[in-house]
């Protein structure tokens, strides 16, 4: 396939520029690789077992707050 050869052609009808743009957009979306699946949410049980060190702060009441659920 050469660089001048079109990727697709309209066989019937005379589409407007907007219709061609919609067609190209639809083809581009269909040919895109699938997105990676979203990460599964962690349960409260899992989150409570691994407290985030960045959220713990030293100071008054820090010891008590370290044992509280987030």
Give a quick rundown of the structure:
This protein is an all-alpha fold and 70 residues long. It has helices at residues 17-31, 44-49, 62-66. The N and C termini lie far apart (59 Å).
Q: How does the SSE layout of this entry go?
A:
Blueprint: H1 17-31, H2 44-49, H3 62-66
Tell me about this structure.
This is Acyl-CoA carboxylase subunit epsilon. It holds the Pfam family ACC_epsilon. It comes from Micromonospora sp. CCTCC AA 2012012. One of its GO terms (molecular function) is propionyl-CoA carboxylase activity. With 70 residues, the chain is mainly α. The protein contains 3 helices and no strands. The chain has helices at 17-31, 44-49, 62-66. The radius of gyration is 28 Å and the shape is rod-shaped. It starts with 16 loop residues before the first helix and ends with a helix. The model has no long low-confidence stretch (mean pLDDT 77).
* Record field, number of beta strands: 0
Overall pLDDT score: 77
The profile of the biggest β sheet is: none
End-to-end separation = 59 Å
Q: What is the oligomeric state here? A: single chain
Strand percentage lies at under 5%
Into which percent range does the helicity of residues fall?
25-40%
**Low-confidence runs of at least 5 consecutive residues:** none
Shape estimate: rod-shaped
The secondary-structure class comes to mainly alpha
Would you list the SSEs in sequence order as H and E? HHH
> Radius of gyration in whole Å, from Cα?
28 Å
Q: Please, how many helices?
A: 3
List keywords for this structure.
70 residues; mainly alpha; 3 helices; Acyl-CoA carboxylase subunit epsilon; acetyl-CoA carboxylase activity; ACC_epsilon
